[in-house]
Amino acid sequence: MTDLRFASVMVGVDAGVGTEARVGLAAEIAHRFAGLTIGIAAEAVPLALYTDAAEAFDEEFVLAEQKRIDDRLGELERLFRRAAGGASEWRQAIDEPTGFLVRQAVAADLVVLGRGGPDDPALGRTGIDLGEAVIGASRPVLIVPPHDERAAARHVLVAWKDTHEARRVVADALPFLRLAEEVTVLTIGEEREVDGLDDICRNLERHSVRARPLRVAVPQGSIADEIILQAEQRGADLLVAGAYGHGRLREWIFGGVTHELLRRTPCPCLLSR
């Protein structure tokens, strides 16, 4: 991304209560960078319809289910068109939602997905697995809390630890960071444990980003608790963090900090791996 902009922003559209606000946020980001907003939704035909002996040969039953899915995706498209406005594109499929998103993410510079909330019932078969999307999309993923419309990213909090993941996400966040009014780079731990803080701040300055270092020696609670506390106390409207985890038996197991941010982030949170 040599021109430091998000030329295309892909947003997951599902049955959640915060979807319309999330689409509006994604469209605002795309508009700010003169980019395209891409809406995406998918729903799979239940596997049981193909395997249940009682319905195995009832083709009409399967076709009726496909028609229901098409109608539901049509409703989501209308929601997207209404909320996005401007330059936009719609993609849908009768397919497993997370896998479809991962395959389509090649068309985007940024992927925007929603974090569920207490008023969000199960998203049904249109829901996207956030963890799998962050790992599989190979794109920066912006996780948005329900009904959060803060697209300005005026005050950005960067959760820094000198790792591959943190270096990657800072590079991915540069379009946001260059437009921010205030950038705070937070490290947690004793000074001897904190590497690269001054270097990353100086490097950001060379990209016209005025970044202020912040060291917290002892967190209040867990590291995730401290990051969330700092974001809330400083009025951050964007949190930037690397996504940490490891694969085991074909499943991705996230570390505690990443898991908690996916579940509890108080503001839009940009994650990269």
UniProtKB/TrEMBL annotation:
Database matches in SUPFAM superfamilies: Adenine nucleotide alpha hydrolases-like
Pfam families in the cross-refs: Usp
Domain UspA: 203-272
Record family assignment: Belongs to the universal stress protein A family.
PANTHER family, per database record: STRESS RESPONSE PROTEIN NHAX, UNIVERSAL STRESS PROTEIN HP_0031
Name assigned to this protein: Universal stress protein
Protein's organism: Aureimonas endophytica
Organismal lineage: Bacteria, Pseudomonadati, Pseudomonadota, Alphaproteobacteria, Hyphomicrobiales
